[in-house]
Design a protein that fits this description.
Blueprint: H1 3-13, E1 35-36, E2 51-56, E3 66-68, E4 71-78, E5 87-95, E6 101-110, E7 130-131, E8 135-139, E9 145-149, E10 154-158, E11 174-176, E12 179-185, E13 190-196, E14 202-207, E15 222-226, E16 229-235, E17 239-243, E18 250-255, E19 266-268, E20 271-275, E21 283-287, E22 298-302, E23 313-315, E24 318-322, E25 327-332, E26 338-343, E27 354-356, E28 359-363, E29 368-373, E30 380-385, E31 395-397, E32 400-404, E33 408-412
Parallel strand pairs: 1-27
Antiparallel strand pairs: 2-33, 3-4, 4-5, 5-6, 7-8, 8-9, 9-10, 11-12, 12-13, 13-14, 15-16, 16-17, 17-18, 19-20, 20-21, 21-22, 23-24, 24-25, 25-26, 27-28, 28-29, 29-30, 31-32, 32-33
Length: about 425
């Protein structure tokens, strides 16, 4: 195996229970699938209870925080108002222990004369940053992608991948060996691209060849291993595709009806679990070793309370989802049998749920996080209100939650 194959195979086989607890280096954590491997996370809090610190965040951004080696990284846009097209697109770093700002760097300036508008519920800083512990990568969709050192110095910028976004940016890059991989699904162009992590230069770029009526989407890829071989799976408006991370060659695709796809898929039991997006989402389980063959690889599917926006969550044999309207579901991952389906509060829900120590955390736009006991029986352990809107997904590290609201970042930890 090449170094790349070994790395991807190791990444995909290192599932939830072997994830490192102390860092949360990308969207949905160390595995990219929403698992915190440690214990001791709080289950009860408020805007004042179990709050270690509360730090105002300038501007506005719906990117999720990440945590690495005692630092918290996130992105924001100033002034942030979606109606204003001139924006300063920034990355910032906070001390995880104290919440104090260590640095703030302007990465790009958005020229309002050239910038398209965004959806009122989107922000100009929605993709989540990621780090390898040595560098930080930030992505602002059509405005560009950049790499910074961990003291905030910009090492490179790439602004050559121009396209016509619809509603703004949303999808987040992933790191595969020395490749930064992300999808571009605009109104005019649809492709997946890999940049060299060290320089930002394009290594490969693969056309989606989309046949969708509405071609725009906001997916975040996932690296998996199938029969010991690495694949990058990436959803588009009308299909999920798999790519060879070395050269971007398309390996297979499975079609569905949908567009404006947002949830990040999860992988386990030889299946990819995904939601198809707007207008009427379907939750699907795809047998990846049968994808591209003569018979349908879909093991099961349902459109009952399927999510438009929150990502699914796989915990051992159970698959959990939460619909935008706040209906949470627990499925048998292999068969699609519903163990339970219950309301967990007033929607909408945008943030992706995560699992920690036998508990499921789901978070609404209204800032209410419901903590459920993982398992085949529905049980609410706590509901926690923050009195601020939130779209960003939580990060977890060192027995603490990092929760981003509309105006603040909180460190929440049981005392």
């Amino acid at each position: 195996m090449t170094r790349l194959y070994v790395l991807i195979a190791t990444l995909a086989l290192t599932f939830a229970h072997s994830a490192r607890a102390e860092n949360w280096p990308e969207f949905r954590g160390p595995t990219g699938q929403g698992h915190y491997a440690g214990k001791g996370l709080p289950i009860e809090w408020s805007a004042t209870k179990n709050v270690v610190w509360k730090q105002p965040i300038p501007g506005k951004g719906w990117s999720s925080p990440i945590v690495q080696d005692g630092r918290v990284y996130l992105t924001t846009a100033l002034p942030g108002d979606y109606k204003i097209k001139d924006q300063s697109l920034q990355a910032l770093c906070l001390d995880a222990k104290t919440g104090q700002q260590r640095w703030l760097t302007e990465v790009f300036k958005q020229d309002g004369k050239k910038a398209p508008g965004i959806h009122p519920k989107n922000s100009h800083a929605s993709p989540t940053p990621l780090t390898d512990g040595k560098r930080l990568w930030v992505h602002f969709g059509h405005q560009g992608t950049a790499c910074l050192d961990l003291e905030g110095k910009v090492l490179w910028r790439n602004t050559e991948l121009r396209y016509a976004p619809v509603h703004g940016a949303g999808g987040t890059p992933i790191r595969v060996d020395n490749r930064l991989v992300f999808s571009v699904d605009g109104g005019d162009k649809q492709f997946v691209v890999a940049l060299e992590c060290d320089t930002g230069k394009v290594i490969w770029k693969t056309d989606r060849k989309s046949s969708a009526a509405k071609k725009f989407s906001f997916g975040t890829p996932l690296a998996i291993a199938v029969d010991g071989k690495p694949q990058i799976v990436s959803q588009a408006a009308d299909a999920v595709m798999a790519y060879d991370p070395r050269d971007g060659m398309e390996l297979w695709r499975v079609k569905y009806d949908g567009y404006s796809q947002i949830p990040r898929p999860v992988y386990g039991h030889g299946m990819l679990f995904l939601s198809t997006g707007y207008d009427e989402p379907t939750m699907m389980a795809v047998r990846v070793n049968e994808a591209g063959g003569s018979k349908s690889p879909v093991a099961w599917s349902t459109n009952k309370a399927a999510p438009h926006n929150p990502s699914p969550l796989l915990v051992e044999d159970e698959l959990y989802t939460v619909s935008d309207r706040g209906v949470a579901s627990c499925f048998d991952a292999r068969t699609g049998k519903i163990h339970w389906q219950e309301s967990v509060g007033e929607g909408p829900f945008w943030a992706s749920p995560f699992h920690a120590d036998g508990k499921i955390y789901v978070q609404s736009e209204h800032g209410v996080t419901t903590v459920l006991r993982a398992g085949k029986t529905f049980e609410v352990l706590a509901q926690n209100e923050m009195d601020e809107r939130t779209f960003a997904s939580c990060a977890a590290a060192d027995r603490a939650l990092y929760l981003r609201t509309e105006g603040h970042l909180y460190r929440i930890q049981a005392k």
